[in-house]
């Protein structure tokens, strides 16, 4: 008979999807966003977990050529290189991809990944999507070239892989590649080390210079099988590796190795004994940004087998996803629950089980009574992701997220809050000081659990540090001059909004001086607004607007950040009423909004702008500056137009398929937008304590609030032929406002929408019924 058993029959039980009990859990599809520009990963992570164990299909590309592989996995790739333990979900840039492992079988197994176009040329393997299974906390795939079934799961600080070898007479092997990384390039790995300890634990660290400079990460790895043989090779200095040659004949069986290009091979004997008993290989890994001892402690803190860890993580996901109980048409239900799932992946745990973590100063600190979190994509997530978490994860928002931001400010060499931080390291990516609205929004919603005076101090320090983004000129002139600082038009309006949130929090705390100072700065958006043209524009130090001016031009490092005048001329969420007056009133504002959505882009080429995706005219849903624009019709007295635009956006920008996100999910922001919008309201202005009503896309939903209260959303007449809101009732009474408040949600109750085939052109149109604005409409 054949000595190689058919993979399908040998692994039939493993391939069967785990039993799924939670409706929310069952509805999630982690494959959404793994194709095109969504940049999500399909692998395993616990809610807000430190480890994201996921397949990498190709790490051979470098810098901008690797944009499509920012999460390691690209759905259309034909091979899987291996599985690494750290990933971003939907970022527009990348790093990470740490400690890649790949199962190998047979003699002379290679230590190089090989050519993606030449199957069998390395340790990478072909695969089929038909064999993939992806659920929150679980991923599985058949590696066809290696004849191995791979399964992944993760705990809070650990990842576990299980490999079942179908070729039962082949040796089970594993490659650990410390060279591999996402956005790889020569010299990215500064140094790495590996050692085999007497108890069989493998530990090591590596230091990289990537998106975050000088990042250190360590690991501790254990196996359920005894290591028969190992090889630690430095491919930068060693003779070419010729493959496994039998026990005791590896090229290098030393217990420890250091260098810039370390790759290891482990061998565990035959996959099956002659009684046909299968012995899958389980690989359990803990990671730490502190040291090997921290990685070992993290590994020890979560005992158990693959099945034990998966069972606990599955229960954690069921609990987290149960924060929202919703029913909607099948495709929408999948999209919304997946959006909720993606919203719960970050900010991620960054401190070890003993509380130690590496901070922004690259020193080791200790979080004594909270869990330090990192992975803050703040320019993106202040808009909807963090406001969502204040509703469904308030306990993490206060005890962990806010305190982590404030502690980072204390440790910062410049004394400012994080901008774009991961694993405690700062990248300085994007603009603004958007940790500020996150803190203010949480405080104003009654989320305490942190020292408000310390937090306000950190906010003010960030907003007054002159060298950052030319705040010195901003404080002097009331705007950022373009001849001193790139992207000045965007920075002026974003700083002004952040300033408004400082004023709101200071006022609530009774600090009149700070409140007055920053309330004045909140009006600085007007200094970037050109009343002659109706655009937010860049100004020179002399006060003149820069010429020439083209409102559709998108160039990196120019007047705007990842956008143009069309997107940024609407960004004054604290004062949309003031903008409407500046534009000449409601009718002219609506006309300009219509012109934005209806703009003919046929003669424009944005192909070199990676983040410009999901265009509807000059509305760009694939990037964040446009995210609140569709709701602005409501500010101009035409909420039925918001309802029309929301259907247009949802129908064209989201679907439950691998290419179902038109742009980077950006650590949950694209997903949080959809979830809020699906429920029928959106936080246009975090810090205002209001959510602007749009229209729902669910039949019903319930927010199961942490204090045991419930807030229900019910929709009568939902359907494509009923796109408009006829009326809204809150707790059975007509709601004449175009918004609901955070307090109304927290109190529990029912928000009921009655849908219609025709628009209601009288509901919430009065100026008194419109959402918050710091100046009058």
TrEMBL record:
Record-level GO BP terms: carbohydrate metabolic process; glycoprotein catabolic process
Classification via InterPro entries: 6-hairpin_glycosidase_sf, GH-type_carb-bd, GH92_a_mannosidase_put, GH92_N, Glyco_hydro_92, PNGase
Keyword line: Hydrolase, Signal
Signal peptide: 1-21
Presence of the UniProt keyword Iron-sulfur in the record: no
Residue intervals of the Glycosyl hydrolase family 92 N-terminal domain: 28-288
Top-level taxon of the source organism: Bacteria
One family name in Pfam for this protein: Glyco_hydro_92N
GO MF, one example: peptide-N4-(N-acetyl-beta-glucosaminyl)asparagine amidase activity
Residue span(s) of domain Glycosyl hydrolase family: 295-756
Record-level GO cellular component terms: cytosol
PANTHER family tied to this protein: PEPTIDE N-GLYCANASE PNGASE -RELATED, SECRETED PROTEIN
Protein name per Swiss-Prot or TrEMBL: Glycoside hydrolase family 92 protein
């Amino acid at each position: 008979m054949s000595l190689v058993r058919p993979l399908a029959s040998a692994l039939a039980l493993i391939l069967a999807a785990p039993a799924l009990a939670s409706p929310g859990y069952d509805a999630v599809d982690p494959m959404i966003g793994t194709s095109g520009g969504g940049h999500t990963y399909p692998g395993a992570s616990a809610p807000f977990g430190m480890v994201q164990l996921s397949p990498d299909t190709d790490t051979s590309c470098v810098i901008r050529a690797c944009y499509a592989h920012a999460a390691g996995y690209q759905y259309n790739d034909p091979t899987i290189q291996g599985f690494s333990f750290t990933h971003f979900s939907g970022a527009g840039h990348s790093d990470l991809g740490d400690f890649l492992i790949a199962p190998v079988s047979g003699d002379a197994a290679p230590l190089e990944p090989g050519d993606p176009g030449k199957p069998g040329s390395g340790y990478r393997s072909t695969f089929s999507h038909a064999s993939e299974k992806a659920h929150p906390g679980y991923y599985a795939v058949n590696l066809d070239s290696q004849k191995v079934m791979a399964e992944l799961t993760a705990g809070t600080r650990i990842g576990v892989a299980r490999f079942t070898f179908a070729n039962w007479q082949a040796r089970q092997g594993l490659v650990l590649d410390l060279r591999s990384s996402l956005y790889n390039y020569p010299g990215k790995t500064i140094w790495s080390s590996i050692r085999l300890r007497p108890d069989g634990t493998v530990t090591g660290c590596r230091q990289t210079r990537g998106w975050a400079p000088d990042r250190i990460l360590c690991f501790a790895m254990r196996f359920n099988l005894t290591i028969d043989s190992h090889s630690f090779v430095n491919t930068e200095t060693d003779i070419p590796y010729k493959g496994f040659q039998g026990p005791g004949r590896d090229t290098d069986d030393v217990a420890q190795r250091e260098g810039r290009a370390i790759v290891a091979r482990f061998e565990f004997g035959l996959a099956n004994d002659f009684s046909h008993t299968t012995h899958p290989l389980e690989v359990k890994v803990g990671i730490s940004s502190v040291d090997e001892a921290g990685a070992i402690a993290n590994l020890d803190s979560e005992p158990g087998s693959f099945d034990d860890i998966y069972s606990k993580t599955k229960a954690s996901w069921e609990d987290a996803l149960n924060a929202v109980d919703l029913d909607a048409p099948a495709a929408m239900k999948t999209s919304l629950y997946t959006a909720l799932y993606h919203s719960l992946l970050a900010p991620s745990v960054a401190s070890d089980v003993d509380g130690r973590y590496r901070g922004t100063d690259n020193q080791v600190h200790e979080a004594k009574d909270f869990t330090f979190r990192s992975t803050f994509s703040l320019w993106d997530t202040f808009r909807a992701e963090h406001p969502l978490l204040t509703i469904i994860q308030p306990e993490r928002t206060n005890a962990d997220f806010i305190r982590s931001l404030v502690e980072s400010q204390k440790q910062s060499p410049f004394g400012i809050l994080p901008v774009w931080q991961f694993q405690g390291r700062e990248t300085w990516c994007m603009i603004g000081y958007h940790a500020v609205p996150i803190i203010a929004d949480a405080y104003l919603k009654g989320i305490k659990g942190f020292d408000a005076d310390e937090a306000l101090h950190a906010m003010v320090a960030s907003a007054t540090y002159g060298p950052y983004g030319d705040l010195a000129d901003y404080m002097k002139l009331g705007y950022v001059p373009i001849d001193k600082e790139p992207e000045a038009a965007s920075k002026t309006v974003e700083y002004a909004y952040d300033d408004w949130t400082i004023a709101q929090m200071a006022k609530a705390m009774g600090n009149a001086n700070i409140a007055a100072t920053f309330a004045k700065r909140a009006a600085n958006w007007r200094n970037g607004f050109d009343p002659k043209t109706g655009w937010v524009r860049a100004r020179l130090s002399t006060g003149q607007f820069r010429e020439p001016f083209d409102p559709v031009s998108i160039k990196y490092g120019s007047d705007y950040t990842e956008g143009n005048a069309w997107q940024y001329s609407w960004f004054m969420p604290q004062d949309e009423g003031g903008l409407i007056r500046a534009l000449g009133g409601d009718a002219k504002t609506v006309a300009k909004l219509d012109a934005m959505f209806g703009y003919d882009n046929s003669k424009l080429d944005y192909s070199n702008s990676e983040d410009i995706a999901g265009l509807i005219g000059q509305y760009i849903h694939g990037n964040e500056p446009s995210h609140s624009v569709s709701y602005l019709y409501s500010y101009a007295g035409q909420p039925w137009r918001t309802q029309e635009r929301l259907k247009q956006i949802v129908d064209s920008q989201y679907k439950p398929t691998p290419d179902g996100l038109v742009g980077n999910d950006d650590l949950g922001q694209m997903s949080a937008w959809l979830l809020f919008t699906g429920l029928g309201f959106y936080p246009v202005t975090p810090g205002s304590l209001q959510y602007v009503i749009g229209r729902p896309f669910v039949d019903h939903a319930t927010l199961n609030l942490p204090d045991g209260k419930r807030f229900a959303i019910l929709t009568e007449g939902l359907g494509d032929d009923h796109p408009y809101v006829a009326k809204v009732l809150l707790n059975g009474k007509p709601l004449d406002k175009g918004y609901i408040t955070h307090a109304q949600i927290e109190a529990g109750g029912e928000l009921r929408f009655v849908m219609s085939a025709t628009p209601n052109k009288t509901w919430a149109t009065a100026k008194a019924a419109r959402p918050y604005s710091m100046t009058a409409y």
